[in-house]
Specification:
This protein is an all-alpha fold. The protein has 2 domains: about 190 residues, MFS general substrate transporter like domains (Growth Hormone, Chain: A, Up-down Bundle); about 200 residues, Growth Hormone, Chain: A, CATH 1.20.1250. Helix content is about 85%, strand content about 0%. The protein is built from 15 helices and no strands. The chain is globular and about 50 Å long. The two termini are about 40 Å apart.
Amino acid sequence: MVSYGQLIRENKNFRNLWFGQIVSMFGDWFNLIASAALIAQLTDSGLAVGALFVARMLAPFAVSPIAGILADRYNRKTILIVSDIVRAFTAFGFLFVREPNQVWMIYALTAIQLGISGFFNPTYNALLPELVSEKELGTANVLGTITWSVMLMLGAAVGGFVSGIFGIYTAFTIDGFTFLFSIIFLVWIVYTPHANQDEDQSVSAALQSYLDGLRYLRQKTDILLIALHKAFLTMTTWAGIQVIQVTIAEQLFVIGEGGSISLGLMFAIQGTGAALGPIVGRYFVGDDLNKVRRFITIAYLIDVVGLVIASSLFSFPVVLLGWALIGLGSSNLWVMSSQLLMQLLPNEIRGRVFSVEFALHTLASAIAAGITGIFLDIGLSISQMLWITAAFSLVPAAIWAAWGMRAEATTSA
């Protein structure tokens, strides 16, 4: 097995791709803090903040089938570079939002930026196997997952501090330059595109292939339930608390301009939990699929404990403790459901199932963020919202636990 250091040192192409991923992801999270704080300042509305997260999730959902098709038909390196160019100029567009009647521009620019990210991410995943050897692929995938968590922590924290100390518009400016910086690394990738060998190259054939993935999920209940975990996670926990924590930072524990620093700290501690979570979980389950299945239920319960602790709102450190546990539980659920799919899916259907999984995840995120914003605006307290979120998180945990017991009973019989 190739070590992380060995992969980074010896594979120049992967190193450049990874550096590009680091900078791009940093920019995505950097922008979130600034745009959320700006909307909160201009509108003072939980629904308006919730709508921001809806835009962030619906945009990549809308482009996910198209993104997969383009990644298989065109030069993947070029797609990554063009994506970063468009995202850079989009980030600079936030500098022109100054008045409450211009809030619509934040939603439009967010939709463009995250929609383009919807092209970048699947293209990155499609290009990765072409730049690493078979023995390097597992290490590269794990490193990518850790990178996401670390960038959540660093991007949100630095974005919060910059917004709180130097101002929101300084953060937008830096965000734009992060994408331009990413292009430098992507250009250095030495890559020869391979022609697609499929007999039918038409868009209609590609869409039909996507629908075949949906039919496969309908026929395989176990795979469908596994593929729904990320949607369950975002619907019950992840998306809702992103809206809630903006309100916590703005109204309860205000540090920095508009609570930007406190918001960044919440994202940072959640990212820390998310980075450590898979390491802790893998220590207990290894590659035993039965243990992985059981630990998914435990991951849901860890989320519930974190939500209950945070709901007390006793102090900011207590809230951060709850957020750390939420990050730990959620990341385990994310990584372990992915592990099950990677090991159980046939190779010929894997990509389509993962694209459907991603679409369901982003759609669930948009719905949950919108509902949370509405509930906050109609008068539910932050503590009540966290308790409701904890209660709903028990539903998929119970469904999965019951399904697992039924499957084990059938196997024993």
